[in-house]
Amino acid sequence: MNQKIFFLLGVLASFFTASCNSGKSPEGQGSQKVETIIKHDTVVVSEGINSKGIGRFKDVKLSHPIDEAMAAKGEAIFNAKCFACHKLTTEKLVGPGWKGITDRRSPEWVMNFITNTQVMLDRDLTAQADLVTCLVRMPNQDLTDEQARNVLEYMRKNDGKN
Amino acid sequence: MNERESYLHSTRIKMRIPKIWLNLSIFNLCIVALLGFLLRSKQLFEMQFIDYNHLVDAHGRFAFGAWVTLTLFSLLIYEVLPEAISKKRIYSWLLAGIFIFSWAALISMSILGGNSMLSNIFATLFIFVCYILSGVFIRDILQTSVHKTVMMLSISAVVFLIMSSGATFSFVILFYLKSLNAIYYRDALFTYLHMQYNGFFTLAVFALLFHKLLPKVSDNANRQIFRFSVLIICSIIPSLFLSYLWSDPPQIFWILAGIGSLFVFLTFISFVILSLSVRHVIHLVSPIVRYFGILSMCAFGIKEFLQGFTIFPIINNAVFASRPTIIGFLHLVFLGFATHFILGWYYNREVFGPPNKNAIIALVFFSIGVVMNEVILMIQGLGSMFIIGYSIFAWFLWAASIWMLVGTLMIGFSRIAAKKV
Predict the structure, then answer these.
(1) ipTM higher than 0.90?
(2) Are B394 and A83 within 8 A, CB to CB?
């Protein structure tokens, strides 16, 4: 049964990727080829991509070590708005699990996705690949840039970054 | 025999609903509670074998179909229609169809998801059975001498049930067209929910309530009931547009939503006036039935009051972007209003046997779980609007889901123990 589901997901992912790709490079997309690997109960992982997504964030400066105050604020936002749909592990709930997200996505991609969700889902190939497994479009959460940055810091803390 | 004794005597007239539908509806309620418990557990624990989105689809569709639709239709058929009509075999076959296709959809959605071919087939078959059942019911009720208000509410209820299927077919079309349009998808979802909750559930409950109430109240109250019924029916279409405002649509939507908001507030005011004028009737029933009746009507009042405020953009944006708020609102109507009403009706009609402590404990236990769930969701929803949240809420909701599951099992055992019905 699991093999059949993987096969169906693979066919569906290929179909979506093929039909969503208009043949042009989306604005802001990196030139690297998108590779997708489907894993059981995890989001579709894109490897070898350095996409910054689509939005106003082109260069996000990260703090080292983690800014604990920012991460705490990010955690509060997660508990208020995000936890209903996301888990802090790799397990998918409504949306993908957050564990490892800062390894899979650039900080700019994350910030753009949080603040420009609908455009990203409409035009960014990586976001659309996630949509294949999740099947639910994330609504805009109306977070400010500062709040989005706090969420990113919390994600980095969750991934054990320093 | 005084009025109360006379009324209580009349309720002890055997229910005409075949036992199978009573038993299956209560069994299905237990399954709905079990699915809710699994969903809450998935949020907290690692459960790789469950696909959350599949189970959410299944939970929602099953709750709508196998619990509320099956139960409300059974009550409308066997409590409102005369016996000579309700005993027609076609009703049994159609209710069986609702039950079977609800279960088939549950199984297919849980495993394959709501958008799989098989799930769509079963969902479509369920809809077609509802179409036939609605047509037969409308044809039959028009031939009866049921009070015109009850007839109007009953027919409107099933019409809105039919209309909700339009939204269901929209999902299928969007999926097969591979559309990623968020606005179409969410608007279809909200249309479906609105037609079911504010349309079918609400109007069917009031049809049943007024069917019992109208013979007991004055002519003035009769007129108030009629006015309220007209208002609530008229409010349903325009208030639908309140659900579309999240996407900042063209101005005409705002105008229609404004009209809807006005109708909702007028309905609320009419409801309050009506409640005050017929409040004496509540003393005709037992305390536990009174408790469920008050809870159910309070839930409706709260729903109606809050819904009107979604005309304001800041509230609309906050509500429709917040998953806990949406879930809280849905459960307010589904559990707080409709389920409380049904359980109070069942107790009043001695579905759980003659008045007994065990049934009361079971029902009140479940009801406390519903209230707990609703309060936590409300706090959580408000919190998400102000970016205040604590991970402990997930544990509270999990506890509430366990409480409700245990409550439904206790209700099930009470039904098993009942010997009279």
Answers:
(1) no
(2) yes
